[in-house]
């Protein structure tokens, strides 16, 4: 009897593990559960946009399709690279991240982080919604057993620091936290002559507080939601890299969905991504005003200073032509 109980207990554990790893599936009452992860903390722009998506899906499916949201790459132990593997395997249904997070699997995604690609946010939004661009980037996703639901604006990656910055020379020798992507390490090390440090995002606040790093770079909305204003009082609005958020869905998940349900997911993703664009457009200025009341000083570049930054990193296009392909750079610059 004891042996039988042990066998039953083991089977129960196996069933629970399979349930955790199953990804998209149906519950006992025929509801479909979509497991969606993203890379940011609760109440960030990524999180708010994901919540809008979940709301739209619930409404359009009359509650039949439910989206479960996992912040901070909660389904991959905060591992950004592992998250992509789990999407490929179908264990994460939808994932939202910076395109360059996928560059470990396909270097073409680095192109989104080339400096000074877009003069304005409107230019960026027009680019990512261009039919040719969407078709091309979706083909990169298809090569990785995923499909692209869309891309939206995530805000320009601004530089916060312990001093005012007006030129690339001011960054020389500074310890700057950057994402763990070669393109950012190359930008700050080889072109700005800073000391870029790749570290887990969860460690950034404490590292700034303790002076282990001199600064970091992220969109203003992330700076605010992460409460970096408590430990950094200078922000450079250089607009050098306009960040994006790409939503990818596992092809294994798509294969399980009916055409009707796949259309609901796509339609709701389109609406949510547009909502995210509008939210940033409406709120970024007010976020800056709020941060100013908290003692944060913002520096805007003059035309001459901006030109100096642009000239300093112009060589990246030749360097990365060998990495992402000249045809990709032509596509990004030609639109």
How would you characterize this protein structure?
- The chain is of the alpha/beta class.
- Helix content is about 50%, strand content about 20%.
- It has 14 helices and twelve strands.
- It has helices at about 1-20, 45-60, 80-90, 120-130, 130-140, 170, 180-190, 205-210, 220-225, 250-255, 260-295, 305-310, 315-325, 325-335, and strands at about 25, 30-40, 65-70, 95, 145-155, 160, 175-180, 195-200, 215-220, 235, 240-250, 295-300.
- The strands form two sheets. Strands 1, 2, 3, 4, 5 and 11 form a six-stranded mixed β-sheet that branches.
- Helix 7 (about 180-190) links the parallel strand 7 (about 175-180) and strand 8.
- Helix 2 (about 45-60) runs antiparallel to helix 11 and helix 13 packs across helix 14 (about 325-335).
- It is globular, with a radius of gyration of 21 Å.
- The relative contact order is 0.16.
Layout of strands and helices, then pairs:
Elements: H1 2-21, E1 25-26, E2 32-38, H2 45-60, E3 65-70, H3 80-89, E4 94-97, H4 121-128, H5 131-142, E5 146-156, E6 158-161, H6 168-171, E7 175-178, H7 182-191, E8 195-198, H8 204-210, E9 215-218, H9 220-225, E10 234-237, E11 242-250, H10 251-256, H11 259-293, E12 297-300, H12 303-312, H13 316-324, H14 326-334
Parallel strand pairs: 2-3, 2-4, 7-8, 7-9, 10-12
Antiparallel strand pairs: 1-2, 4-11, 5-11, 6-9, 6-10
